Amino acid sequence: MNSSPIIRKNKRRPMAEINVVPYIDVMLVLLVIFMITAPLITAGVKVDLPEAAAEPIPADQEPPLIASIDASGNYYLSVGDSADQALEAHQLVELVIAHRKVNPNTQIMINGDKTVAYDKVVQLMVLLQTEAGIESIGLMTDPE
């Protein structure tokens, strides 16, 4: 019998691993932040919309152009951003035409305060149809 000790060479190869736990933590924190802030972001001007039973716009669609009319009859235009500068009717039409040249399939929505005279909403619709060539215009409402 051979009583000499067996010598083993410790051949450790370096392991290449990525610890993903910290990345998951960061992702969950970002998810919570976006879930909290998303409902706080509103598009357009603050108006008191009429209530009606209607289907919401699908989330996978491109955001529409929102032409707003506030309670005092001022016009605003927003494209996802908040619009806080009142426009004249011809300025709003020019902006819609310019945006439609870049994105011809963008939907146009009218966001009219429920206290605004129906006449103002119809005038805006006619302007957008005749001068900007918009064929389809949607009206925004609050759910019942």
Automatic annotation (TrEMBL):
InterPro entries: ExbD, Tol-Pal_TolR. The Tol-Pal system is composed of five core proteins: the inner membrane proteins TolA, TolQ and TolR, the periplasmic protein TolB and the outer membrane protein Pal. They form a network linking the inner and outer membranes and the peptidoglycan layer. Keywords: Cell cycle, Cell division, Cell inner membrane, Cell membrane, Membrane, Transmembrane, Transmembrane helix. Part of the Tol-Pal system, which plays a role in outer membrane invagination during cell division and is important for maintaining outer membrane integrity. It is found in: Cell inner membrane; Cell membrane. Belongs to the ExbD/TolR family. Its main location: membrane. Pfam families: ExbD. It comes from the Bacteria. The keyword Cell division applies. This is Tol-Pal system protein TolR. It is a single-pass membrane protein. The chain crosses the membrane at residues 20-41. It comes from Aliikangiella maris. The lineage of its organism: Bacteria, Pseudomonadati, Pseudomonadota, Gammaproteobacteria, Oceanospirillales.
